Amino acid sequence: MGIIVNLDVMMAKRKIGLSELASRVGITNANLSILKNNKARAVRFSTLEAICRELHCQPGDILEYVDEDE
């Protein structure tokens, strides 16, 4: 598995929708959706910083490492 993106969990906890978060962060709905659905191959630190700022969380609340052997 590798890195898992738990953005959908944090968005639900903060009760914020995709369109609203995308607007606040300054990225497209499509790009945020790709990240949210674990399809992203990379994320810019500036984007991660903006997401954390808007969701009042830490990067570790969004990104999780899962050992592929488990």
Automatic annotation (TrEMBL):
Coiled-coil positions: none
Domain HTH cro/C1-type: 7-62
Name of the protein: Transcriptional regulator
GO molecular function: DNA binding
InterPro entries, A to Z: Cro/C1-type_HTH (IPR001387), Lambda_DNA-bd_dom_sf (IPR010982)
Pfam families, per the entry: HTH_26 (PF13443)
Species per Swiss-Prot/TrEMBL record: Vallitalea longa
